[in-house]
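so my prof wants the structure for this chain in the tokens format not the other one, which i didnt know existed until like an hour ago. anyway here's the sequence
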Amino acid sequence: MKLNFSGLRALVTGAGKGIGRDTVKALHASGAKVVAVTRTNADLVSLAKECPGIEPVCVDLGDWEATEKALGGIGPVDLLVNNAAIVISQPFLEATKEAFDRSFHVNLRSVLQVSQMVAKGMIDRGVAGSIVNVSSMVAYVTFPGLANYCSTKGAMTMLTKAMAMELGPHKVDRVNSVNPTVVLTDMGKKVTEDAEFARKLKERHPLRKFAEVEDVVNSILFLLSDSSASTSGSGILVDAGYLAS
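here's what i got, hopefully its the right format
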């Protein structure tokens, strides 16, 4: 997708690997100035070599105070991609408080916190911007052992809608989500470690495949761009037809 983000400043969380990393690279290649946020410094070092000029920020977004310190003075942001997430696989009856809290702090609470920072800046500047929350098709369907993760993504669906409803009247913010099926990043591979489960799951997809990282990134770029100027409070399913099955 050929889009021009020259003159715009983007912030991408979960930028060290997978979807977040490729989103940073695509935005950088499209002319945006990019703030790349992740908790693993080594990932930022290698990413900065691939994308000279990015602004790296190393912080654990599950830590509210550390995030406030790291991003509270981040400056003007036009485009925000909330991509940071973790998967802690536990059967429902064995789910722990620690895993539940950690999942919601990283996957959902950080979206609230970072989006508040960015949206307030957009409103103060009176500049139109776009926020994309990277969700999942498990916002609508669930998989075994993913009660915590699925719950965070289901909640993200309503948070996206609430943000769109409340920020829209300021005429500066659009908020949407992308909801992919399994993407074979490091995180996605955890879901498909069981080869037989992975085979059956792929067969449930009408297109008989999982999503490629590029497919998700293209949807993110579309929602960030003026090409989706009348789209807000929505989610793009990048699920190879899974929910249709």
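also thought this was worth mentioning. Residues 97-125 form the longest helix (29 residues).
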